[in-house]
Every structure is written in structure tokens, then in C-alpha cells.
Design brief:
globular, 50% helix, 4-stranded mixed beta sheet, 498 residues, 8% strand, Cytochrome p450, binds protoporphyrin IX containing FE, alpha+beta
């Protein structure tokens, strides 16, 4: 397929002529410094969409903790220090609580009928409130506990099989499948993992949906080049994915509304949303499109983030045997040598909790958080930032700021013991879930899954590397995409402890 940027380069001479003829109308602004780009396309051709946070981290070393980019005709700033994250989220949170309107996200979110992608406003506030109170609250999350417990037990059983036959386990695969099963059961009340064609249909649709979120639509940055997205087939792919997903959600809704449906063993989020729709007690009328858009949010926001974090935690522990030994000793001693640890048991493990935090510091699943946009002009670090500027907060860089963290690149969970630093959005050097009005509302659900999965993996097995492999051989390469996944599968040997 012809790259959109190649097409742009071919059309560029004509546009340069237009630009130079009209350059007096292009105003200069006292904007933060940044890499020089080309007229019209700005820095678009220089950016690596796959590992953008790493590239922006390098650029912050050259241009400072706030720098600017030109993304086609749109301006962006990148914030890379805890001090400026605090200024942003404390002093200007309301102004930076919009999200940029991007073509693919708008389409797949039914034009922003959900929580992640709409701009700040009444409709976003209401739908977020409905979900925070009725779907994502700690109370509701604990009612889904039996789903997590059942599925984690199934995984442990499977790994026991691997342990007794000395078969190496691909932890990426096992943990992705587990997160996906937990979230599907939580959302739909059923699992798609072992249902043949249904399974591959579901996974195919969601992989394509993730690819559409990560894709670069030229029309987002240079609207008059929008035809390129048609030419490359990207728009048609998006339309098809939307159509297929819409049909899938509709089937799920129809299935749940079928009067002959057997009472499900587990009530899922779809059931909760359909009941709320009937009750009509909110300032907005919940429609099927709202429900479909919210389902998309849950699947997209929860599955990859949980899987990626558990894989990174195991990777870090295998690379740091001292920490692995210490955390397993804590879990097994304070856990009273129980065969299976329940969610309440895990709250007694301070070092384990510190391991999870340290994992989220070094391997935050959403390294650029979710981009924001200014709704009006504001001053940040003395710079005039106009309305409609895209704001990237580079969590990856902030979590490695040497002014905030000693030995920032080392995996040292002890740094969180005797420390009040937490991920609730008040400590701006540690923001894996973001901060301010748009902070992740899924923290209780995320923590419940991470705790249960990781604590039981560490309680039930000792972990070894396959023969001939040393801890130095475990790589930490990342897969391109919105969520920071480990690129190469982590193969390990689960051993039943003596
Ligand atoms: C380890 C797991 C997770 C991490 C690291 C994570 C991280 C994030 C981050 C960084 C944001 C953007 C916050 C901002 O703009 O300041 C976000 C937003 C969001 N997350 Fe999560 N998340 C996780 C799990 C979940 C789960 C389990 C759910 C729900 C089932 C969820 C639902 C959402 C939603 C709906 C938003 C949009 C909030 C808004 O724009 O108002 N997340 N998440």
C-alpha cells in the first residue's frame, strides 16, 4: 500500500507554493521550542507513530520538559516533567480536560457517546458518573470477584499441567487470554475464549479496532488531504470495522434482552447497563448506542492494560531474582501457605503492592496517557498555549525523571515502602492512570485483577527460565501500539514449590 506520507511528499510542491504566497496570514506564536518541521506537514514525517513516547522522551532531553510539535496544521505540546504535570493537572485541569477529536476514535465511539473520547462537557460527565457509580465502583467490582477467582483458578490449573510435564509456558499468551476472558465475562457474562468461531470473530474484531485507534488518519491533521485516507483504503477499513462491531454489540444486546434467555450465572456489565436504560433516571436518555460505545470502552481500556502489566511484572521479577525471592517469601509467609489467595488476603502484602507500583512506574501500559486538548488559551510554564492545542503528557519520561526518582531506570520496589506515593492522581511523579478530571475510572477493577493474578502466580509456583537462558537474555523490547506490550513472548518454567 502507498504510504500516505509518500503521497503528501508528491503533492507538497503545489502546497508549498500556496504556503509561500499566503505566508503573511500564518501568524508566529510565542510557543514552546520544538523540532523544526516542514511547511504544512510540520513534524508528521519525523514521528515514529509506534514508539512515539520513546522518541518524545529523547526530544525532551534536547528541547526541555515542555516542547512543541506541529502535527500537520495542528499544534501540540509535550509535557515531560512531574513539575509541569502538576501545573497542568492542578492549575489548568479544566482547560486541558478535552480530548482531540480524531476521525477513527469518533467513528468507533458513536461520535463520543462514551467516556474516553468525548470532549469535557455535560454528556461526558453524565455517562462517566453513571459508569463510575453503577459499573466501575469498588462495590460493583467486588461483586464481579467470583469471575476473577474462577478464571485465575483455571489458569493455575493449566499451569500445574505445564509444571508436571515440564512444559515451558508462553506467559504473554496465557496472561492475554486470562485478561480477555475475565473482561469478557465481566462485560458480557460469558467467555469467548473457548467458543471456536465466535472466539476468533471476537478477537479479530477487537484487534482490528485497536489497529484503527493506533492508525494515523491524515484527515485529522491536514483536512484537505483527507482524500488520502480514502485512497489508502483506511476509511473503508474503518467503516467495515465499525459495521462489524456494531453488529456484534447488537447481537449481544439482543441476546441479553431475549425473554427466553436462561438466567446467567454471572450478571455482566451489559445486564447492568440495560437495567439502567430501562430505569430512565438520568439527565440523558441512555440509548443502545451509548451502551455499545461504553462496551467498547471497557474492552479497549481493560484487556490490554491488565495483560501488559502482569507480563511486565513477571518480566521484571525474573530479571531481578532478589525481588522475586523477597516478594514470594512475603506472600507465602503472610498468606499462611494457602493454596489460593483471595482478594482480601492480598491487602496484607505491602512489598507485593510495592512490586505492582514499581511495575507501573517502569512499564506503564499507556506511556503517553490519553492525549488531551486545550479548550481555551492558557499559560503553561510561561508559554502561551492557544485553544485547540493537543497536549501529550509523557508518563514514560515523568516516571524516569532523575529529580523525582533515585536510580530511575532500576526496578526497586523498596522505593514505595515507607512512602505515601500512590497512583490516585495526587502525586504527579507517578501517574500511570493519569490525573485530574479525566483520571482512569477503572482503577478499582484494574487493581483487583492485577492483585489476584500476580499474587497467585507467585504463590503457586517457583519460576525458572528455560534451559540455557540467563536473566540477562530476557529482553524488554516493546511492541508498537497504544498499549505498551512486551514484544517477544516471555517463556518460563512453572515449578511446583517443594
Ligand atoms: C493497568 C490498568 C490500567 C491503566 C494503567 C489505565 C490507564 C489509563 C490512563 C492513563 C487513562 C487516561 C487518563 C487521563 O487522561 O488522565 C485512562 C483512562 C480511562 N480508563 Fe484506564 N487504565 C487501566 C485499566 C482500566 C480499566 C480496567 C478500565 C475499565 C474497565 C479503564 C477504563 C478507562 C476509561 C473509561 C478511561 C477514560 C476516562 C475519561 O476520559 O474520562 N481503565 N486509563
Amino acid at each position: 500500500m502507498v504510504s500516505p506520507l509518500v503521497i503528501i511528499c508528491l503533492t507538497l510542491p503545489m502546497l508549498l507554493l500556496f504556503f509561500f504566497q499566503n505566508r503573511r496570514t500564518f501568524k508566529k506564536s510565542p510557543f514552546p521550542p520544538g523540532p523544526k518541521g516542514l511547511p504544512i506537514i510540520g513534524n508528521l514525517h519525523q514521528l515514529n507513530n509506534s514508539l512515539l513516547y520513546l522518541q518524545l522522551f529523547e526530544l525532551s532531553k534536547k528541547y526541555g520538559p515542555i516542547f512543541s510539535l506541529k502535527l500537520g496544521l495542528r499544534s501540540a505540546i509535550v509535557v515531560s516533567s512531574p513539575k509541569l504535570a502538576k501545573e497542568l493537572f492542578k492549575d489548568h485541569d479544566l482547560v486541558v480536560s478535552d480530548r482531540p477529536k480524531l476521525f477513527g476514535q469518533q467513528k468507533l465511539s458513536y461520535n463520543g457517546l462514551e467516556i474516553i473520547f468525548p470532549p469535557y462537557g455535560e454528556s461526558w460527565r453524565e455517562i462517566r458518573k453513571i459508569c463510575v457509580v453503577h459499573v466501575l465502583s469498588s462495590r460493583r467490582v467486588s461483586r464481579f470477584s467470583s469471575i476473577r477467582v474462577f478464571e485465575v483458578k483455571q489458569m493455575i490449573k493449566k499451569l500445574c499441567g505445564h509444571a508436571s510435564s515440564s512444559k515451558a509456558t508462553n506467559l504473554n499468551e496465557v496472561l492475554m487470554s486470562l485478561s480477555s476472558t475475565i473482561i469478557c465475562k465481566t462485560v458480557f457474562g460469558k467467555r469467548y475464549e473457548d467458543e471456536g468461531t465466535e472466539r476468533s470473530r471476537f478477537h479479530g474484531l477487537f484487534n482490528e479496532c485497536q489497529a484503527m485507534f493506533a492508525a494515523l488518519f491524515i484527515s485529522d491533521y491536514i483536512p484537505f488531504f483527507g482524500w488520502i485516507d480514502k485512497l489508502t483504503g483506511l476509511r473503508a477499513r474503518l467503516e467495515q470495522n465499525f459495521k462489524d462491531l456494531d453488529q456484534f454489540y447488537q447481537e449481544v444486546i439482543d441476546e441479553h434482552m431475549d425473554p427466553n434467555r436462561k438466567t446467567p450465572e454471572n450478571e455482566g456489565i451489559v445486564d447492568v447497563l440495560l437495567q439502567l436504560k430501562k430505569q430512565r433516571m438520568f439527565s440523558i436518555d441512555l440509548t443502545n448506542d451509548h451502551i455499545k460505545a461504553v462496551l467498547m470502552n471497557m474492552l479497549v481500556a481493560a484487556t490490554d492494560t491488565t495483560a501488559a502489566t502482569t507480563v511486565w511484572a513477571m518480566t521484571a521479577l525474573l530479571k531481578n531474582p532478589r525481588v522475586m525471592k523477597k516478594v514470594q517469601e512475603e506472600i507465602r509467609t503472610l498468606g499462611g501457605k494457602k493454596e489460593f489467595l483471595e482478594e482480601d488476603d492480598i491487602q496484607k502484602f505491602p512489598y507485593f503492592k510495592a512490586v505492582i507500583k514499581e511495575t507501573l512506574r517502569l512499564h506503564l501500559p499507556a506511556p503517553l496517557l490519553v492525549p488531551r486538548e486545550t479548550s481555551e488559551a492558557c499559560t503553561i510554564d510561561g508559554y502561551e498555549i492557544p485553544a485547540k492545542t493537543i497536549v501529550y503528557v509523557n508518563g514514560w519520561a515523568i516516571h524516569r525523571d532523575p529529580k523525582a526518582w533515585k536510580d530511575p531506570h532500576e526496578f526497586i520496589p523498596e522505593r514505595f515502602l515507607d512512602s505515601t506515593i500512590d497512583f490516585g492522581g495526587q502525586d504527579f511523579e507517578f501517574i500511570p492512570f493519569g490525573a485530574g478530571r479525566r483520571i482512569c475510572p477503572g482503577i478499582p477493577m484494574a487493581v483487583a485483577s492485577l492483585d489476584l493474578i500476580l499474587a497467585n502466580l507467585l504463590n503457586s509456583f517457583d519460576w525458572e527460565l528455560p534451559a540455557g537462558m540467563k536473566k540477562e537474555d530476557i529482553d524488554t523490547e516493546m511492541l508498537p501500539g497504544i498499549t505498551q506490550h512486551k514484544k517477544n513472548p516471555l517463556y518460563v518454567l512453572a515449578k511446583t514449590p517443594m
